[in-house]
Design a protein that fits this description.
The protein is α/β, with parallel strands linked by helices. It has three domains: about 100 residues, NadA-like (Rossmann fold, 3-Layer(aba) Sandwich); about 80 residues, Rossmann fold (3-Layer(aba) Sandwich), CATH 3.40.50; about 70 residues, Rossmann fold. About 45% of the residues lie in helices and about 15% in strands. The protein is built from 14 helices and twelve strands. α8 links the parallel β7 and β8. It starts with a helix and ends with a helix. The structure holds 1,3-dihydroxyacetonephosphate (13P) and iron/sulfur cluster (SF4). The site of iron/sulfur cluster (SF4) has 13 residues, from loops. The site of iron/sulfur cluster has 13 residues, from loops.
């Protein structure tokens, strides 16, 4: 069955001049059919550089939206509009406006996991791969940062700056599922393991990690590391990619509950029907897209 779906997808891709971009948390079959698999930053860059007529984005809503913002010449299709990142919906335009009134002059740095309308109010848009370096480079001691309070805290730790989390409660429901007890227990079983974690994890979990980074930075780390066994503190879908990239190594999920249900809403069947019916097209208000693009360009300008 999958073989038939895969060959129909491949055929349609050629006919439509389409590519498939997939996030590191996507199900194995989706990763395997993708032209490129990566983290939010790599996927944004791929979308920006693509000459394809159609980009099918296998990921959650804000990622497909970001691709549409960055590539006006391609049609960006999101195979399942109901695949939405719950953290992205924790921040509103009003939250940012309120913070700007409270901290006048402070730059607004928005995590890519947010809606376009909110990013349009930001001076800079970052991902987990470049948030620390961007904030470090800014000529301001106070930074307004949303919507992830844990990433904001991590950036504050790494830069020594006053990083104000907006809203106060923004978090990823998947990365708060790790528990210290479980990690301690797993470390005692896998004695020589190296613990790697995503910066969306709470401080108590991050503080136990030997390495903290974006999903692709974690993959690069395990490839380079001389260690053999890794305890993985992020969404479990990444383990498929890690096992492919470093076949001789062993990957243990730090929690089997760390599953992003929204990422798993993208399936081969939905990718096929998205190509057949050319749906669902990501549409962004032009004025909003322009402002978001400017905030992304500002980040690239600072980081070079
Ligand atoms: P990355 O940019 O590190 O891939 O993270 C995206 C994300 O949604 C993590 O939960
Ligand atoms: Fe959003 Fe968390 Fe899922 Fe990432 S893992 S897409 S932050 S809910």
């Amino acid at each position: 069955m999958d073989v038939e779906i895969v060959s129909r997808i491949e055929k349609l891709k050629k006919e439509l001049n389409a590519i498939i971009l997939a996030h590191n948390y996507q199900p194995p079959q989706v990763q395997d059919i993708a032209d490129f698999v990566g983290d939010s930053l790599e996927l944004s860059i791929k979308a920006m550089q693509s000459n394809a007529k159609v980009i099918v984005f296998a990921g959650v809503d804000f990622m497909a939206e970001q691709a549409a913002v960055l590539n006006e010449n391609s049609t960006v299709l999101h195979p399942e509009p109901d695949a939405k990142c719950p953290m992205a919906s924790m921040i509103s335009v009003e939250d940012v406006e309120k913070a700007v009134r409270k901290y006048p002059g402070a730059p607004v740095v928005m995590y890519v996991n947010s809606p376009a309308a909110v990013k349009a109010l930001a001076n800079y848009v970052v991902t987990s791969a470049n948030a620390v370096n961007l904030v470090k480079a800014l000529d301001s001691e106070t930074i307004i940062f949303g919507p992830d309070k844990h990433l904001a805290e991590y950036v504050a730790e790494k830069t020594g700056k006053n990083v104000v989390a907006v809203p106060e409660h923004g978090h990823c429901p998947v990365h708060v599922k790790f528990s210290l007890e479980e990690i301690t227990c797993l470390k005692s079983i896998y004695r020589n393991c190296v613990f790697i974690a995503h910066p969306e994890c709470p401080r108590a979990v991050r503080s136990q990690a030997d390495f903290v980074g974006s999903t692709s930075q974690m993959i690069e780390f395990v490839k380079r590391s001389s260690a053999r066994t890794f305890l993985v503190g992020t969404e479990v879908g990444i383990i498929y990619r890690m096992a492919k990239e470093a076949r001789e190594k062993v990957f243990i999920p730090a929690s089997t509950k760390a599953i992003c249900d929204d990422m798993k809403k993208i399936t081969l069947e939905k990718i096929l029907s998205s190509l057949v019916s050319k749906s669902y097209v990501m549409k962004i208000d032009r004025a909003v897209a322009e402002k978001v693009r400017k905030a992304i360009e500002n980040t690239f300008d600072v980081l070079g």
